[in-house]
Design a protein that fits this description.
Blueprint lengths: L1 H32 L5 E5 L2 E8 L4 E5 L6 H5 L2 H5 L4 E5 L17 H15 L5 E5 L1 H12 L6 E5 L12 H6 L2 H14 L2 H12 L8 H5 L1 H4 L2 H21 L10 E6 L7 H11 L4 E5 L6 H4 L1 H14 L4
Parallel strand pairs: 3-4, 3-5, 5-6, 6-7, 7-8
Antiparallel strand pairs: 1-2, 2-4
Helix pairs in contact: 1-7, 4-5, 5-11, 7-11
Length: 316
């Protein structure tokens, strides 16, 4: 019996070692295929990846959960670059920006580091636009960095405390044990077709646009460190939103909210309808039939909301 146990343990260790090797190889392939699109800005010793394009008033774009700059540079940033200087950031721990909090970077910490990075690029008071989790960071920016924002644009924002529990994968991935034992298996063995199928669920009821997966680089999201950082942020978000929400009334910059009526990930009525009453002067644009990814499937409409915010802020 002891011999059987030793054999099983040896096989498990061998499988884990193989998964570590295979995961590292997959990560190296992903980073070679989808390198940084822009420049690395160092803020307080922390590397922040930023893509800068266009000329005009400054607009900062913040991606959502599990994302990177490529989510915004696929459709929205090129449209905006015709009239603005667009700065697209990888949020901390994702894409090619450093993680700096072992417990998960809070939305307030992320707002601070990204605001400082924007200032280094010369954007002292940009329009800030964020999607989903990026909308949460944008709200934290508007509340805690009020002197460093001209207008706020929220795209399907996670803004009001919710009642659904964190999904099982992120519960596991947010833990140290999950990071060591489970995530190497995911990175090593989950096939690309499964990741692409997951993208269709994110875009529902729309489907993933042609060329999006090839541009976005799902392999970047599937890196162990990225999944762990993302999961820790997701695990902490609910309590952070509970703490931030009482301060929404302090936001005094022009605010535009854009939300699809068919969004089953971050519900329009639960989040944006309530948010509309909590931010003075906020305006809401509902996009009929659009799901959770307006910045991709309805990029012109999102760009129009940013134009309205710029006009209300006296920037255009």
């Amino acid at each position: 019996m002891l011999r059987v146990g030793i054999i099983v343990l040896t096989l498990m260790v061998a499988l884990w070692a193989f998964a570590i090797w295979r995961a590292a190889r997959s990560e190296a392939r992903a980073e070679a295929a989808f390198p940084p699109e822009g420049q690395i800005v160092e803020v307080d010793g922390i590397a922040v990846h930023a893509v800068v394009m266009g000329e005009g008033p400054d607009v900062v774009l913040l991606h959502g959960s599990s994302g990177n700059t490529r989510d915004m540079t696929f459709a929205l940033a090129p449209i905006l670059a015709e009239n603005y200087r667009v700065i697209v950031f990888d949020r901390p721990g994702l894409g090619f920006s450093d993680s700096f909090n072992p417990n998960g970077e809070t939305i307030t910490e992320q707002a601070e580091i990204l605001q400082k990075a924007a200032a280094q690029i010369g954007a002292d008071k940009p329009i800030v636009a964020g999607q989903s989790y990026g909308g949460s960071v944008s709200l934290a920016w508007a509340v805690t960095r009020p002197d460093n924002i001209s207008a706020l644009v929220l795209i399907a924002p996670a803004a009001v405390p919710w009642e659904t529990p964190l999904d099982g994968f992120n519960q596991i991935a947010s833990t140290s044990v999950g990071n060591v034992a489970a995530l190497p298996l995911v990175t090593a063995f989950v096939p690309e077709w499964f990741v692409e199928k997951t993208l269709d669920q994110v875009f529902a009821p729309q489907t993933t646009p042609d060329g999006y997966a090839d541009h976005f680089g799902p392999g970047l999201t599937m890196r162990r460190a990225s999944m762990h950082a993302n999961a820790k942020q997701r695990a902490n978000l609910l309590e952070e939103i509970r703490a931030l929400r009482p301060r929404y009334g302090e936001i005094d910059v022009p605010t535009e909210i854009v939300h699809g009526t068919a969004d089953d990930t971050v519900g329009l009525e639960w989040h944006s309808h309530r948010l509309l009453d909590e931010i003075p002067g906020a305006e809401l644009i509902e996009l009929p039939g659009i799901g959770h990814m307006p910045q991709v499937v309805a990029a012109p409409e999102v760009a129009a909301a940013i134009d309205r915010a710029a006009q209300r802020a006296g920037l255009r």
